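re: ur question from earlier - yeah i can do the single chain one, its not a big deal. heres the input i used so u can compare w yours
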Amino acid sequence: MSISVIVCTRNRSEDLRRYLCSLDKQTQMPDELIIVDASEDEETRDFVERRMRMSQYVIKHVRCEPGLTKQRNRGIKESKGKYLFFFDDDVVLDPEYLQVSYETFDHFEGKNIGGVTGRITNISKNRSALDALFKKIYFLTEHGKGRLKKSGFPEHRSDDKLAFVEVFSGCSMAYKREVFSKYLFDERLTDYSYMEDVDFSYRVSRKYKLIYQPEAKLVHLSTTYKSVDSRFLRRMMVRNHCYLFRKNLPKDVPHIFGFAMSIVGLLLYNGVLMKDIKACIGVIEGILRPLKVIERPDMMGKRS
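and the output i got, formated as tokens:
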């Protein structure tokens, strides 16, 4: 098999249905689709089983306990393809997404390419000047060169130029199978596993080249962040942010300064710009109860 598509889902059969409609319209079909389902009911399973009878490709429904990193690793284990594509269940693919990505892998064959990601086309370009300046000053997540900032937060690429990058957005990323003989997703990042995509892609980028391919296009509807309590999200964000900074980045003055500024920036951004007191409480809770790194950073998330 050449292309395995892995989609992790939980209690979102309508999102999954919309995604699968876009997958069925691809100019290059996958060889297999693996749906890793952590739902609390049988609605998703029943829906998937109905689709199995009429699908153009192999569909496998796999039950798994909740946790995005755990579900992704289970999908890797169940897959057979040379290239593994990971999508969130709330994306809509351009019809040529798989074909363009596959051709990109083929074009760069033999040049130590580990992964390819596409362009999210519905990212708003209408940020206020204050918002953009704030994220720049406080080393917060923004759209830029596709690299990891000194703080540990990412700049995700969203322009129209093909480029080598350090970090991928987890809603759409593809890797060669050989990558997973060395790396796995870090299962200490639980629930929605905020920044598990950045952690994994950054570690892979230390050994392989990663490509941003703007001709592989998709829409990301971000259902998760519209439906989950802001206090919970910010608490998870800060806990994971602290953990991944300690795990992946050097502890020199520039990096420590960037990290400290990002924590201050999160409090100010949510309190002053967003006026979200619940989110501020979540930030404080994340600082007070961070995840602890209990293994050597170079071993965390790798296969032994």
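The radius of gyration is 19 Å. not sure if urs matches, ping me
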